[in-house]
Hints:
Elements: H1 20-33, H2 38-64, H3 69-82, H4 92-96, H5 100-104, H6 108-114, H7 121-129, E1 133-135, E2 138-139, E3 155-157, H8 173-179
Antiparallel strand pairs: 1-2, 1-3
Helix pairs in contact: 2-3, 6-7
Function: One of the primary rRNA binding proteins, it binds directly to 16S rRNA where it nucleates assembly of the body of the 30S subunit.
Keywords: Ribonucleoprotein, Ribosomal protein, RNA-binding, rRNA-binding
Organism: Methanothrix thermoacetophila (strain DSM 6194 / JCM 14653 / NBRC 101360 / PT)
Amino acid sequence: MGYPGKSHKTYDRPRKPWEADRMANEVELIKTYGLRNKRELWKAESILRKYRRVGRMLLASKARGEARADIEAAAVINRLSRFGILKDGADLDAILSLKITDILERRLQTQVYRQGLANTIRQARQFITHGHIQVAGQRVTVPSYLVKRGDEMTIDYYAGSPLAREGHPERSSKIVARTGGSA
């Protein structure tokens, strides 16, 4: 069973490690989303795999006519909707049609870049790890943090960060233009 205080691996490696198509796809996703290594991609795939497995099990239990299946399905769909992975009013089939990009788009690193707080996806990662970004008033230093739909608009520079000042040279030009400062 293992020691409960020890962290355990949260991902699975691919079964065929040298498959050319998969490797090319992984490299493209790593570049697009600014991931540090393939392990981060595999963690996101594990999250996706978990929700797909739950979706398949719930569809099977609904087909058998189990009473709790509807309640559990609503809970899973509600959770994925809160994170913005699914749209409101989605059904169990939508869980099975999720893609890895749906998970990667909800990462804090991607959200910081998409909102224009950083010039590049790599700079977004650096801002987060150096503690320059806050979500809902709390400093977050984990680029893989999954941002909830309600917290999207609360992503900003941390108040104690030098980047919070208007004239900082590393601030994105999009933000300077949006706040009314000079570019």
